[in-house]
Design goal:
By secondary structure, this protein is an alpha+beta fold. The protein is built from 2 helices and 5 strands, in the order ββββαβα.
């Protein structure tokens, strides 16, 4: 995982599929990391210490959706009885 810092301070947007907020973004994609290095972005390698905040949120959202689907299925089964 690499932390990418945009050359334009405070930049918010997307570059080559990486979302930046307030000048910061991150990616695991080596091709994208190479692109950023070639184009003057600061790249700081991070140790793979665990999931990013975005990955944690995605996992949490999926768990909530799975739990809701399970509850909906149980309610539908109860309505059949």
């Amino acid at each position: 995982m690499a932390k990418i810092t945009a050359p334009v301070k405070g930049f918010t947007g997307t570059v080559v599929g990486v979302t930046f907020a307030d000048g910061q973004g991150d990616t695991k994609d080596e091709a994208k990391i190479s692109y950023f290095r070639r184009h003057g972005y600061k790249v700081a390698e991070r140790a793979a210490s665990g999931p990013t905040d975005a990955e944690k949120k995605a996992a949490s959202d999926k768990a909530a959706a799975d739990k809701k689907a399970e509850a909906d299925k149980a309610a539908a089964e109860a309505d059949k009885k």
